[in-house]
């Protein structure tokens, strides 16, 4: 949720001028999340709450939100049980959002930034991965596979952009050499931090950030299909293919970086080939002729892996549906009774095939971080600003 909030905030910061009336809706979505994150960060001194609900119990149960009766265990990180990764991402989300609200709600913006600084200080001072502290409360669902250094980099990068405080720049430099991945996601933030920091080199001509510009372009070379340094597989239909489980999360996030870096390059009047992009593929230009956004186009996934979409509404079925009474709704081949309009699913396999099977969560499950990351690219193309 924190990564979702950071990416949605970044989208608004970069593209609000081309978002039109949608910018106001985006701010509502951001504040829905930041209200929650503020509570998580300030409810108890010395603690950052990072999860609600036993994930193992929740995953065994297929219920409507209105019927949920699984245990609501609350999980937190602290100085004795650190979580630099989740804290760094929470700080990034609050810092990015503080800039979104800076002119429209200065008081709220100041609260977000103050809390972001405190959470970032906690992430820096008490080092450790939250999955080491919380164990099976987060693994294997959202383990910190990439470690926590990338979130320290990411959080500090956003605090630096929000404050211009040299303290965060010095911390960035103290982290030493970064990994140079060919991926960007809720777990691995290196590439996103490199693009964000490269902005200073491109738009402000700040020589202190040239190394990040080099790292950002190294990332692009690993993504572009015609690059001799490419380490990225593409499907026969032209889709970037990273991993089998929810591949679209990487497609939307990486596309955001490519389009945003192209935007910076255009403003800086530099040349660097950013190749072809894949938004059209997601919305229907693909071998299946399917839009992978629910409710968009004539042909879209009808059996998405989503409880509220797959179970009948309270209006049509007012009786409670118990935790273990879901089988008739979960295993049916009938379309979901409720269309989750706008949700982007995990996407097709490496051969461009999509079964539209609700039990196949790795391909049919939508996520907030899939959707948050595509807002920027859609606004980029809607604004006609592509280089």
UniProtKB/TrEMBL annotation:
Key words, A-Z: Carbohydrate metabolism, Cellulose degradation, Glycosidase, Hydrolase, Polysaccharide degradation
Protein's GO biological process: cellulose catabolic process
InterPro entries attached to this UniProt entry: 6-hairpin_glycosidase_sf, 6hp_glycosidase-like_sf, Glyco_hydro_9, Glyco_hydro_9_Asp/Glu_AS
Catalytic activity: Endohydrolysis of (1->4)-beta-D-glucosidic linkages in cellulose, lichenin and cereal beta-D-glucans
Entry superkingdom: Eukaryota
Domain Glycoside hydrolase family residue range list: 1-377
Pfam families found in the cross-reference section: Glyco_hydro_9
Major enzyme class: hydrolase
Active site: 356, 365
GO terms, molecular function: cellulase activity
Family: Belongs to the glycosyl hydrolase 9 (cellulase E) family.
PANTHER family assigned: ENDO-1,4-BETA-GLUCANASE
This protein's name: Endoglucanase
UniProt source species: Rubroshorea leprosula
